[in-house]
């Protein structure tokens, strides 16, 4: 089962610095201002400006794409899906629009559609490493682990400094019961971004899988050190402590987990109460790649 996916999709917004000649100057101006409002964090103002841009030019694909990204950031998935689709209708060769819509389908649990859209983005731009990463996630959650690893391999070839690709491949190796490979990939992710608790937690899980309880405890503790509110690290440390017979310490971590994430704590409670071997909660979530971070060849 997939290790609890740390869903860190960080959208890098599309600045509208130029436009096709047929696009009205007013539409371009409002789209530019909407991008600036987004950068300042005023999502409602950004939506309003992109909407105004579309009143001046209803065929302005970039305005639909930018508004879709804001809807996505606001968690308004139906609106995001509709705007990504309109952008695709107007600009069928936009890898960004397909990748963005793929992210919506991924969040909706429509993995076949997500994979199709990420694949289309890759067809348009074969060097789009973010699309490989996100297609890997869709394949991983759809139990296509080998195919997911292939996508992460390609993403690493294209972007050797990709934290997300190394982290997610580590989670995939863990699913395949290959803890040594998982430890190596999580280690690469940690070297690239030492402040991310998810990768320490993933490596701890891999160390636990090969019987290195002390190493696992050290990693869970490190994860808590860099992110004291990361409930999953407390959950996994409670697992390791319970397996080591340190029930009082495990209970303390359980109580912290309860305060931070009640649903996850309930998962723990059932296992601690019956004193069965506690294998831990469901794992380490893959890191989602920014949709716009590697568009050099677009």
List keywords for this structure.
mainly alpha; disordered N terminus; two-stranded parallel ribbon; about 300 residues; elongated
Structure write-up:
This protein is mostly helical and 298 residues long. It has 15 helices and two strands. A two-stranded parallel ribbon has the order 1-2. α7 runs parallel beside α9 and α8 packs antiparallel against α9. The longest helix is centred in the first third of the chain and has 16 residues. The protein is elongated and about 70 Å long. The two termini are 35 Å apart. 51% of the residues are buried. The N terminus and C terminus are likely disordered.
How many extended strands?
A: 2
* Strand line-up in the sheet with most strands: 1-2
Shape: elongated
- Residue-averaged pLDDT, rounded? 86
Largest sheet: 2 strands, parallel
State which percent range the strand residues make up. Answer: under 5%
Order of helices and strands: EHHHHHHHHHHHHHHHE
Supply the number of helical segments: 15
Radius of gyration, rounded? Answer: 21 Å
Q: Give start-end ranges of low-pLDDT stretches.
A: 1-21, 274-284, 290-298
Helix fraction? 55-70%
> What quaternary form is this?
single chain
Distance between the termini: 35 Å
Q: Which secondary-structure class do the elements indicate?
A: mainly alpha
């Amino acid at each position: 089962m997939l290790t609890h996916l740390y869903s860190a999709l960080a959208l890098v917004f599309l600045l509208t610095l130029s436009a096709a000649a047929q696009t009205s100057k007013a539409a371009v101006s409002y789209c530019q201002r909407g991008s600036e409002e987004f950068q300042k964090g005023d999502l409602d103002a950004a939506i309003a400006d992109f909407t105004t841009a579309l009143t001046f030019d209803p065929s302005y694909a970039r305005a639909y794409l930018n508004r879709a990204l804001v809807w996505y950031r606001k968690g308004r998935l139906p609106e995001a899906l509709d705007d990504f689709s309109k952008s695709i209708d107007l600009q069928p060769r936009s890898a960004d629009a397909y990748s963005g819509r793929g992210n919506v389908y991924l969040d909706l649990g429509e993995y076949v559609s997500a994979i199709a859209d990420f694949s289309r983005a890759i067809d348009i731009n074969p060097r789009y490493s973010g699309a490989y990463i996100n297609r890997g996630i869709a394949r991983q959650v759809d139990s296509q682990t080998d195919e997911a690893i292939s996508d992460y391999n390609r993403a690493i070839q294209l972007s050797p400094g990709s934290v997300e690709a190394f982290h997610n491949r580590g989670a995939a190796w863990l699913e395949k019961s290959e803890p040594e490979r998982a430890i190596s990939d999580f280690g690469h992710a940690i070297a690239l971004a030492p402040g991310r608790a998810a990768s320490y937690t993933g490596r701890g899980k891999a160390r636990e899988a090969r019987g290195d309880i002390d190493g696992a405890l050290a990693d869970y503790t490190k994860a808590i050190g860099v992110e004291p509110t990361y409930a999953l690290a407390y959950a996994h440390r409670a697992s390791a402590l319970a397996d080591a017979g340190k029930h009082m310490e495990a209970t303390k971590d359980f109580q912290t987990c309860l305060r931070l994430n009640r649903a996850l704590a309930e998962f723990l409670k059932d296992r601690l109460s019956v004193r069965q071997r506690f294998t831990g909660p469901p794992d380490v979530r893959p890191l989602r790649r920014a949709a716009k971070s590697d568009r050099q060849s677009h």
